[in-house]
Task: structure prediction
Amino acid sequence: MEALADLAGGFSTALSPINLVWVVVGALLGTAVGVLPGLGSAMAVALLLPVTFALDPTGALIMFAGIYYGGLFGDSTTGILLNTPGNSSAIASTFEGHRMALAGRAPQALATSAIGAFTGGLVATSVVALGAPLFASLASAFGPEEFFALTAFAFVATSFVVADSALKGLAALVIGFAVGVVGIDSQTGTVRYTLGLPQLFDGIGIVVITVGLLALGEVLYIASRGRWQSGDKLVRVTGRPYLSRAEVKEAAPAWLRGTAFGVPFGVIPVGGSEVPTFLAYGTERRLDARRADPQFGKGAIRGLAAPEAAGNATAGTAMGALLAIGLPTSATAAVMLTALQQFGFQTGPLLFSRSGDLVWALIASLFIGLFVLLIINLPFAPVWAKLLLIPRPYLYAGISVFAGLGIYAASGSVFDLGLLLGLGLLGFLMRRHDIPLAPVLIAVILGPLAEVNLRNSLAISQGDLTVLFSSGTTRVIYGLLLVAVVVAVVNKVRARGSADV
Result:
C-alpha cells in the first residue's frame, strides 16, 4: 500500500502540464532517432542527453522516460520496414515483422509492435512500481555459475531455434565468438586478435556489428540478386493501420507469453532483452509448427507479437533493477545510468529514501510514456509504412548512407566505417550460404559475459569444473537446456522423415 501511495504522488508530479510536454517530446525524439538505421534506443538516449541539461532534474528524467520507450519502438520500426533493427533487442522481431511488411501488411505489423510494446511495458512497469525492493534479493541470488548457465542456455537455444541446420547455427556461434573476443582481455590485459591495430584494442562495437551484418549485408545481398531493374514493381503497402478482431485474437496469447519471458530477464544481466526475445520467438515458432497451416516464414503475427512484448517487458524491469540496485542489465539501461549520474543521483536502495519524489515521478512517467507512444504511433503506422514506397535504389542507398552516418556519429572514426564495410561483406556471404545471423549477434553480445563468468567460477573453485553444476539453479537451467535440445533434435528428425516420405 505504501508503494501505491508513493506512485500516486509520482503521478501528481508527472501529470503537470510541463512534465507532460517533456514526456511527449521525449517519445517523439526517441522514436525519431531510434528509427534511423545505425542509431537505436541506446544511441537515442546518449545523443539526446545534452538536450536535457537545461532542464531541472525531474523534467529531464521524465523526458528520458519518453526517450527510453520511444527509442525501443524506433528500433523495431526500422527492423520491420527495412530489415534493419536499430538495436540487437529488435532482431527477433525483424524475422516475421519484415515478412509481414513485404506482404503488404506493414501497418498491421507496426500496430502489432506498438500494442505488444505497450502490453509488455505496462506489465513490467507495474512490477517495478510494486516490487522494486524484491529485485535486489532476486539479482543477488545469482552468482557467476548461474550467469554462465544462462548464457550457455541462450547460445544453444538460439542455434537450434533460429537455424534450420544445427551445424550452421553452431558455425554462426563460432563466428560471433571470434568477433566478440577481439580487443584487450578485461581480466589479464592481454591484447587478443587485434592484428596490432590500436583501433581494435577496445573491441568491435556492437552497433558496428549489428549495422554491418544486418543493414549493409542486406543491401549487398539484394544488389547481388539484381532486384533493382527498372521493370521491378515497388512493394505496395495495403491494409488497415489497426488490427482486426481476428488478428488481435491471434496475437493476444503471444503478447502475454512474450511478457512472461521478458519480465524476469530485466533484473538478470545476461545481455539485455536479446535472450527473452529469442526465447519468445522460438516458443512461438515451435507452437506454430504444430498447427495445420504453419505461418512462420510467411509473416506470422505471433512471431512479431511475442518478441515485441518480451523486449519491452525486459526494458521495464531493467529500469527497476537500475533504480533499486544500480545494476544496468542492458546497453540502454547503462546509458540511462549515465544520465542519472549526470544529475548527481546514485542509484541503489538508498535512492528511494533520498530522492523518493523524483524516483516515483520517473516511474509514473514510464506509465505515461507508454500511453503516449501508443496514442502517437498507432495513427502514424501508415506514415512509417510509406517508407516501403520509396524506389528500391533510393531506399537501399539511403539505408547505406544512414548506416554510415550512424556509425560515424557514434565514434567519429573512419576506421569503424572500414569495419562496417568488412562486416557487411561477411553478412552478405552468410546470407548467400544460408548461415543465420542471429547466433552471431547473440555470441557477440553474450560471449564476453560468458567468458568472464566462467573464468570467475573456475578461479573461485581453483579449477574445479563441478562448481558449474553446484547450485540447484544451475542444475535446473542445464536440465531445461537438455530437454530443449532433445525436443529440437526429435522435431528435426521427424520433419526430415516426413519430407522423405
About this structure: The first strand starts at residue 183 and ends at 184.
